[in-house]
Design a protein that fits this description.
The protein is of the alpha/beta class. It has 2 domains: 225 residues, TIM Barrel, CATH 3.20.20.70; 87 residues, no CATH class. The strands form 2 sheets. It has an 8-stranded parallel β-barrel, surrounded by 6 helices. Strands 7-11-10 form a 3-stranded antiparallel β-sheet, with no helix packed on it. The model has no long low-confidence stretch (mean pLDDT 91). The structure holds flavin mononucleotide.
């Protein structure tokens, strides 16, 4: 590497490279996160699919494998968000990343404890709100991205958010290579965050059979039939079936999945109901949408843990269509930063003194 990229994100979080691996349920566990951290990126553990005990164990497992900083992703609307924040503080986690906007008090508690707070947003006004509440940076995800996603493309959302807030902005949605990183920096971002690209690495724990399905995939769709919210996933027979299914059979499936997740997570029905109520308020959802939300963890798990692409949904960004390898995180991050530096040098070489 001829040069490194020193940005507000690397300075804020203490990582070497401005490259973030996002929190992906069932995927972003200790193995992937520590591989990213050891490669100089910011790895983020996904905690929504973990119990408190599992999260504490996962944090310690990352620590055993790396001395580098890393983060934990939390669901801002989870009923137990306060306890999870306390756990992060107790365990000395460096960065708290949030799916959706966290409450102002949560941001304040984390910041008082010296934790860097980076909420994910999909709209300019959400970025403005969390920046005003004291977030240290925002991660903005454009519509190309995998998982829950909004309708506005990264190329339009990113410049809007960069102009709207004074804190560092991390660009997500559709990034996979060094040119993308250079372009994000040109837009004024402080780095990029990637989900799909890190899912497709040798260090990702996703079963080989499922990785092969991703590598062969050309098409993603945005469906509301998984959990009532727009969700970008690989097109599959299962997803086509969900799209065709009627409302009643859709809700019945969601209830079965919610029951299965309850058994797996050890949550009581009462805790799940409290969670549902918080979700309804936080995201403005109907009860049927809340019930549908029971689908996400189980349908993702069927693919990501059990290795059954036929029985599960495979969240994925549009970038999947251009990915055809499974590099190690070390090789991937090295390649991305080296190529970004080259791209920036090529751009700089276009400059001539204006002789007119
Ligand atoms: C398999 C998968 C699971 C995901 N799970 C979560 C999650 O649990 N929480 C979350 O905030 N985002 C989740 N996401 C979204 C990613 O964190 C990230 O924002 C997105 O993948 C970025 O777009 P990209 O895929 O184009 O890189 C998931 C994405 C994928 C592909």
């Amino acid at each position: 590497m001829t040069a490194v990229l020193d940005t507000p994100l690397t300075r804020l979080t203490g990582v070497r490279h401005p490259v973030v691996q996002t929190g992906m349920g069932w995927v972003a566990g200790p193995r992937l996160v520590s591989a990213v951290a050891n490669a100089g990126g910011l790895g983020v553990l996904a905690s929504a699919t973990m119990t408190h005990a599992e999260l504490a164990t996962a944090i310690r497992a990352v620590r055993e494998r790396t001395d580098a900083p890393f983060g934990v992703n939390l669901r801002a609307d989870a009923a137990d968000a306060d306890e999870r924040v306390a756990l992060l503080i107790r365990e000395g986690v460096r960065v708290a990343s949030f799916a959706l906007a966290p409450r102002r008090e949560l941001i304040a508690r984390l910041k008082d404890a010296g934790v860097v707070v980076i909420p994910s947003v999909g709209a300019r006004r959400h970025a403005e709100k969390v920046a005003a509440w004291g977030a240290d940076a925002v991660l903005v995800q454009g519509g190309e991205g995998g998982g829950h996603t909004g309708p506005v493309a990264t190329t339009l959302l990113l410049p809007q958010v960069v102009d709207a807030v004074d804190v560092p902005v991390v660009a997500a949605g559709g990034f996979f290579d060094g040119r993308g990183l250079a372009a994000a920096l040109a837009y004024g971002a402080a780095g990029v965050a990637m989900g799909t690209r890190f899912l497709l690495t040798a260090d990702s724990p996703v079963p080989e059979a499922v990785k092969r399905v991703y590598l062969g995939a050309a098409e993603t769709v945005v469906t509301r039939q998984v959990d009532g919210m727009p969700h970008r996933v690989l097109r599959s027979d299962l997803v086509d079936g969900l799209e065709r299914a009627g409302r009643v059979s859709g809700l019945a499936r969601a209830l079965r999945n919610a029951a299965a997740f309850r058994r797996l997570s050890g949550l009581s029905w009462r805790a799940m109901l409290t969670d549902g109520r918080a979700m309804r308020r936080g995201r403005d959802l109907s009860w049927s949408q809340v019930i549908m939300a029971g689908n996400t963890p189980m349908l993702l798990r069927a693919a990501m843990v059990d290795g059954r692409p036929d029985l599960g949904v495979m969240a994925s960004g549009q970038a999947v269509a251009v990915l055809d390898d499974l590099p190690s995180c070390a090789d991937l991050i090295d390649r991305i930063v080296t190529d970004a530096v080259r791209a920036i040098e090529r751009q700089a070489a276009l400059l001539r003194p204006d002789a007119s």
